[in-house]
Amino acid sequence: MKALTLPALLPALVLGGLLAGAVWHDVRARRIPNQLVLWGALAGLALQATLTPGAGLYAEPFGSLGLLSSASGLAIGLLLLLPMYALGAMGAGDVKLMAMVGAFLGPEEIVGAALFSMMAGGVLSIVAALWQGSLRKVLGNTRVLLVNSALRAMGGDGAHIAAPAAPSGKLAYAIAIATGTVIYLVLVRTSGWSVLL
Length: 197
Known about the structure:
Blueprint: H1 6-29, H2 34-50, H3 67-86, H4 92-132, H5 135-154, H6 174-191
Helix pairs in contact: 1-2, 1-6, 2-3, 2-4, 3-4, 4-5, 4-6
């Protein structure tokens, strides 16, 4: 692994600052401002469009993937979390934040970042449920969701997942997105590991 050069440090600082801002707003107000996500997505698109071509802003050799790849990453980031929004499991701001991250990472690395973000979200959910004393309710909702889905699938209706009738609480999911993204990028940067290898 090479040391980060100034051009390679810029995208990391910009994305890190945007993720920190999203976490701050989400923890404080349970809301991620649209302006933060919009300007962040534009910054990701601009960096990918203007820097010297390469393997990605967080990969070796450092360089941009181009505007089309950045826009593809944005779209994939949006589509990956959209089902969770449709189920009421997360807010629209969380979905848009993942799309913003996709503008920085491109179409391949956003898949890994989203996967790690979902794993971080699972851990965060368990920690929050333990903290709030609602672990039994969370596990009950999960059981009902899985059993109903399995029964529908066995009945020939196809698996259908519906949000539980009594949600167990809201999380500041920007924490999970930031944590998962950072862990994934550290793995990519330090070992060259990728979820799509």
